[in-house]
Fold this protein.
Amino acid sequence: MSAGVELDHVTVRFGEFTAVDNATLDIKGGEFFSFLGPSGCGKTTILRTVSGFLDPSEGMVKIGGQNMTGIGPNKRPTALIFQNLALFPLMTVAENITYGLRVRGVDKTARTKKANELLDLIALPGQGDKLMSELSGGQKQRVAIARALAVQPKVLLLDEPLSALDLKLRQHMRSELRSIQRMVGITFIYITHDQGEALTMSDRIAVMSDGVIQQVADGKAVYDDPATSFVASFVGENNPFVGIITRADSSYAVVDTLFGTLRGRNPKGLKVGDKAILFVRPESAKLGTGAADTTFSSKVKSVAFEGNMTHVFLEGVGKKDVTITVGRHSSADIPAQDEIASVTYDVDLGLVLPEGKMARE
Amino acid sequence: MLLGIIFIALVAFWTLFLVALPYLYMVVESFHPNLPPIRRGGPDDFVTLTQYKSFFVTPNSGTVNWTHMGAFGFSIIASIAVTALNFAICYPLAYYMAQAGTPQKVRTLMLCLIVPYWVNEILRAFSLRLLLASKGLINQILMGTGITDVPIDFLGNNTGLYVGLSYAYLLVMMFPLYNAIESLDRNQIEAARDLGAPWWRIHKDVVIPYAKPGIASGCTMVFMLSAGSLAAPQFLGGPRTLWFTAIVYDFFFQNFNWPRGAAYAFILLTGCIILVMAMLRLFKVSLGETIK
Ligand SMILES: Nc1ncnc2c1ncn2[C@@H]1O[C@H](COP(=O)(O)OP(=O)(O)OP(=O)(O)O)[C@@H](O)[C@H]1O
Ligand SMILES: [Mg+2]
């Protein structure tokens, strides 16, 4: 059984400092929902507020439509998987998994049965008697999941549970988590600062920066239609061109940049004179010449061949390069260093957004 | 390198000459009759268990030595009580300081705990006596507020003894507990809570098992120190209260019967060690863990 989670104008302050600023969200039951954002943006704070370890300074949390104000973490239908797992080192694997049942007074036979079921689910059959210290990182990870699932929560909260694993294992655990979620069918709220994780696993993603939710959308929309300059620069690579809008209609806008006037989509309906940033992703740009308002040129600083693709770094504004990624089977000739290269892009792949905060490099 | 050798040599010297040899001398002493120095090594000097036997049977009358055995039993039981009391006081405090309190409050609390120990033991014991005496502050308050009509004899009923001993060794319990609990990852406490555990189960299942070596260490030290303490029982015990160390003291310094004093001291030591070992085994803690 799953339950939705609603954040209704939730603000969390630590003294003067606002860690979460007026977050309003509606996470559906059974959804795999991720919070994505850089370190310190308030992700853990949101999760702790949902699980009941923190009370919102303003607003409220609802789970399954029920107001959770005043209900402690041990009484909420949520289970939290901690950033460092927090497994009990002095208990065996099975004791860890069934701890939540033990405190609920479930008898020994029922607990053993449940432990065996869950050990099968996490692909550690018959390993219930092992000590925690005898398990590998990935196995501990799975025990933490089983321990949380044992209490049959309606919502599972995961705080960067894969961050301690190496790359290979992380990628493997991604698909495993996703399939466990499909199997148990409950709501997963997943926290990560790794966009690859968020994009591959989630039904929807909330991108956060400095306590503010910037955008809530599915992965494709977050990538193709970022709502703010922060999202555009944080998710995936992007080349920003800062300038002032000189012409605009409801579909397109032209920005006067240091690389000339460049055109792109105008989903925010910006007006002439607005400060704006045009974003062109490296893989959307190609070498060559097109229409005047979608073509610019710059000196080649360096070229990096990476097998399936080649990155061309052009001189940009200040220290920031303009990057173009050329696919293996592109017919274009890769320019040499110090040559002036001409670059063009499809006007629908240029995106004009209001000037705003950018993600730190 | 050279410094290391010097340190090892110093510690070896210290252990050998200041600890091992005197103890050894005492052990030997306890197996001899009490003789004036001239007759030592003479025909009357032989190895004997008399001194140990005198603990059970009074030498001259041949009756069972209830007085000394009683004092022994009382000292042990009272020390267990003091240990339990100290644990009951220190555990919540240590938990608060290690896991729950804000750094600033913890610092204040720590200071309040430590500063009174700058005052020497005798002054502390006597001020406690003043507080608990029949005309002392506490009795005056109790009578003033009409809770009792006659003063309560806190010293005679050994309340003073328990309070004094507990207070004397409070920090000895406090620090091992604090150290043990402090290193517990707070997420484990929260994980237990998140899984539905009420507060007392969190302590029973997560905090206490984790802090067990520290608890064992604190309890062992408080028990040993309390059973072997001399000043607090003398100043704060009731008139009829006989602490075992007082008997030992008297043999050494009143009766000048060193062999019997030494034998009694070893009886106390052995009794305490056996008890501590039994407890460690019961709670499945190894001796090595307690000194970590
Ligand atoms: N108990 C607290 N008291 C004061 N400030 C806090 C507290 N907890 C978190 N903060 C602050 O709130 C902000 C958000 O913290 P949070 O732990 O939610 O970040 P996060 O997004 O989870 O980061 P990370 O990816 O590094 O885990 C941080 O600036 C942090 O310093
Ligand atoms: Mg975090």
User: Anything to note?
Assistant: Residues A 43-44, 83, 159 surround magnesium ion (ligand 2) (CB under 6 Å). The longest helix of chain B spans residues 66-100. Chain B touches chain A at residues 185, 187-188, 190-198, 201, 205-206, 209-210 (CB under 8 Å). DSSP finds 14 helices and no strands in chain B.
